[in-house]
From TrEMBL:
PROSITE patterns: ZINC_FINGER_C2H2_1, ZINC_FINGER_C2H2_2. GO terms for molecular function: endonuclease activity; zinc ion binding. Pfam families: Uma2. Signal peptide: none annotated. The keyword Nuclease applies. SUPFAM superfamilies: Restriction endonuclease-like. This is Putative restriction endonuclease-domain-containing protein. PANTHER family: SLL0198 PROTEIN-RELATED, SLR2092 PROTEIN. Coiled coil: none annotated. GO terms for biological process: double-strand break repair.
Length: 276
């Protein structure tokens, strides 16, 4: 992007009602790493880019929301390694081109999983830029407070906007998304999005509890109890009188005095070793 074009972009006077070229979108997001941008007093972390070229602000997450996202990413990451999936797990800093209606549409789910078959065949251009052929994850997850205002109409709009994002962008024609999760930890609600046999997207509300990855994420279960622990601010009881554990690795008989060291050893020396 030329220096003259850069000078025309004032981060303090962005017009969210106009369209921006993809190059300007990339430049603006890059500048947000070094500058503060606010909308109605709320700091914006980065922008998404819709099919019409409009900038979609992504406000910075509150600490509880980000803690939930981090826990979900951790659970997905552990499953990915421990079961030898060979895929990739990303957070909201990882954007994808969902190519809605034949137009480039950059969206960044709070968490996502890309299968090995997709990830291992990406080109260097796809891995390091947004300029390669579009590709999308297998699973997308959004974490949001779906009730943000006491006004009934505003409540509905928050949920409707997210619902449309899943149905018409994440599950747009041609994407490889097979499952979507919308999780509202504050109000303990969650919804699952999938395609039926005819390819039509449907949504169903799931009771507040663990979610099975089914055949899409085989062997994975999203542990909601651990999410609740993260945001509860209550400490789990500890056995202060109990001294260090004595653990022997069943594979090599190495000795460990705590579970963390044992798990780290087992994952690195045995699980990853089997994958290789």
């Amino acid at each position: 992007m030329s220096s003259k074009a850069q000078q025309k972009i004032d981060l303090n006077d962005l017009d969210l009602n106009r369209s921006y070229t993809f190059e300007k979108f990339e430049y603006i997001n890059d500048q947000l790493k070094y500058h503060t941008f606010e909308i109605n007093g709320q700091p914006v972390n980065l922008f998404e880019h819709d099919k019409n070229g409009n900038l979609i602000p992504m406000p910075q997450a509150t600490i509880n929301m980000e803690a939930v996202v981090s826990e979900i990413v951790r659970q997905l990451g552990n499953w990915n390694v421990q079961t030898g999936q060979g895929g990739a797990v990303t957070s909201s800093q990882g954007g994808f081109n969902f190519h809605v209606g034949g137009r480039r549409t950059i969206r960044a789910p709070d968490a996502s999983f890309i299968s090995k078959n997709v990830y291992r065949h990406l080109t260097q251009q796809q891995l390091w830029t947004f300029k390669g052929e579009p590709f999308t994850p297998m699973v997308v997850i959004e974490v949001s407070d779906t009730i943000k205002d006491s006004d009934t109409n505003k409540k509905k709009k928050v949920f409707d906007d997210l619902d449309e994002k899943f149905k018409f962008e994440y599950f747009a024609m041609g994407t490889s998304v097979q499952m979507g999760l919308l999780i509202d930890p504050k109000n303990e609600r969650m919804w699952i999005y999938k395609r039926n046999e005819k390819g039509k997207v449907f949504r169903r509300e799931h009771t507040w509890g663990d979610i099975d990855g089914e055949d899409i994420l085989p062997g994975f279960t999203l542990d909601v109890e651990m999410i609740k622990d993260i945001i509860s601010q209550k400490s789990r009881p500890t056995e202060t009188s109990k001294k260090s554990e004595s653990l022997n690795c069943p594979k090599c008989n190495n000795h460990f005095t705590d579970y963390h060291s044992f798990m780290k050893h087992f994952e690195k020396s045995h699980i990853r070793e089997q994958k290789g």
